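> forwarded from #structure-qc
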């Protein structure tokens, strides 16, 4: 018989992995609520153009990482590589472009054809937020503060730093881009092959190249700061003042350019030294042309996405949920009685497991290990008298309780 494994770059989420995952997404929901964000879910696949146009044909994601396929009707569809494009598409599809701002978050699987390694998968999960209709840098600061609160709530406040940069407005970026291209052209023979091809289509990406030979050229490259126009500089200064007002600490890092094409002004990453090369756990920025690309009006937005697997690897392991009560029926008649007792206990909100597998000792070992607070023994003799033997596992005290009283006795025990 064939033994299947999960496809390369994917993994099953179970046991502790699943608990870590749920802690990350659950904490996100708690914190986002404090900021008035509500959840959206968009389809896991979209018309390929939704991504190709919005992320930029030259971005790594579009040029080499997308899972694109033709369906039986001949449509070109793509498994979503990220969440923002789908959200912008949904805003327009649902005619919400006049109902601004929209503060939304999402969570779910994303798909990128990448070389699998630590912290890098082909199916991974993101939790992200978008503020659609972000009229000022104050909004950028607010959604960054939300990211900070989320990471602090996960216990990661000390492990992460916020790196911040500005890409300015389009005019500033174009002027700088021209200067960069001129500079790199002069030194084209010293550029890596990858960067030589970036020179035409996306020269900004050269700035975050990991190749040694490219990095050597960066020190003398034209600095963006010299090309920021007044408007962009004002935006940048207001952003930093607002971050300070929200109590968000950051370091400026001019190397942060982000991989996708749609950003302007604010870009940022929360990074850690604890995950090796895959140190960015949460990243985002301001984007202004995306809603227009989807057929809506020009709406400025600010958003970010966090990698759930990377956060899950950093947090402390959450403890497993345990049942409050374990029922141990002895014999067939007791088993059926256990069904009716468990029903009233569960109706009252208690978590109940019915232990039937293995001998008594094995069952008791499993229950003690599970951390349940009470065990409920049920034998033929008990059935005849309509009682159960209730053991408090912490004190090991045991008492006989009429079946009719079990719910109230256990509810009282839970309350105390
Ligand atoms: P990287 O530089 O690591 O490739 P990216 O710029 O492609 O990241 P984004 O598109 O900004 O990443 O996605 C936001 C976050 O999603 C990342 O910071 C990371 O935590 C997570 N992420 C991105 N790609 C993967 C992947 N293949 N596997 C696991 N997590 C990922
Ligand atoms: Mg990437």
């Amino acid at each position: 018989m064939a033994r299947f494994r999960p496809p390369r770059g994917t993994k099953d989420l179970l046991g502790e992995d699943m608990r870590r995952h749920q802690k990350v997404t659950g904490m996100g929901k708690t914190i986002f609520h404090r900021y008035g964000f509500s959840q959206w879910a968009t389809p896991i696949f979209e018309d390929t153009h939704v991504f190709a146009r919005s992320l930029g044909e030259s971005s790594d994601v579009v040029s080499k990482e997308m899972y694109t396929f033709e369906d039986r009707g001949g449509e070109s569809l793509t498994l979503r590589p990220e969440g923002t494009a789908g959200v912008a598409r949904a805003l327009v599809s649902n005619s919400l472009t006049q109902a601004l701002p929209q503060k939304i978050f999402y969570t779910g699987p994303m798909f990128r054809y990448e070389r699998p390694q630590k912290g890098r998968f082909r199916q991974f999960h993101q939790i992200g937020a978008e503020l659609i209709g972000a009229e000022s840098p104050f909004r950028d600061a607010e959604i960054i503060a939300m990211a900070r609160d989320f990471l602090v709530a996960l216990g990661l406040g000390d492990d992460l730093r916020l790196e911040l940069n500005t890409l300015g407005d389009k005019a500033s970026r174009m002027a700088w881009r021209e200067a960069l291209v001129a500079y790199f052209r002069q030194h084209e023979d010293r550029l890596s092959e990858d960067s030589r091809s970036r020179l035409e289509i996306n020269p900004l990406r050269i700035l975050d190249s990991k190749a040694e030979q490219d990095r050597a050229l960066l020190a003398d490259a034209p600095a963006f700061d010299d090309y920021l126009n007044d408007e962009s500089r004002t935006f940048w200064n207001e952003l930093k003042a607002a971050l300070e007002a929200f109590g968000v600490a950051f370091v400026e890092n001019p190397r942060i350019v982000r991989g996708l094409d749609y950003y302007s002004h604010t870009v940022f990453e929360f990074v850690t030294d604890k995950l090796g090369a895959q140190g960015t756990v949460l990243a985002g920025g301001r984007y202004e042309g995306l809603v227009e690309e989807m057929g809506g009006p020009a709406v400025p937005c600010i958003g970010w996405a966090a990698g759930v697997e990377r956060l899950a690897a950093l947090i402390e392991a959450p403890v497993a949920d345990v049942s409050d009560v374990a029922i141990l029926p002895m014999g067939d008649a007791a088993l059926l009685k256990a069904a009716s007792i468990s029903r009233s206990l569960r109706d009252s909100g208690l978590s109940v497991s019915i232990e039937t597998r293995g001998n008594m000792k094995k069952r008791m070992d499993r229950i003690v290990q599970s951390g349940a607070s009470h065990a409920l023994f049920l034998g033929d003799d008990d059935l005849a008298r309509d009682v159960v033997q209730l053991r408090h596992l912490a004190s090991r005290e045991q008492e006989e309780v009429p079946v009719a009283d079990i719910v109230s006795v256990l509810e009282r025990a839970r309350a105390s």
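QC bot note: Residues 355 and 366 are 9 Å apart (CA to CA). The radius of gyration is 28 Å.
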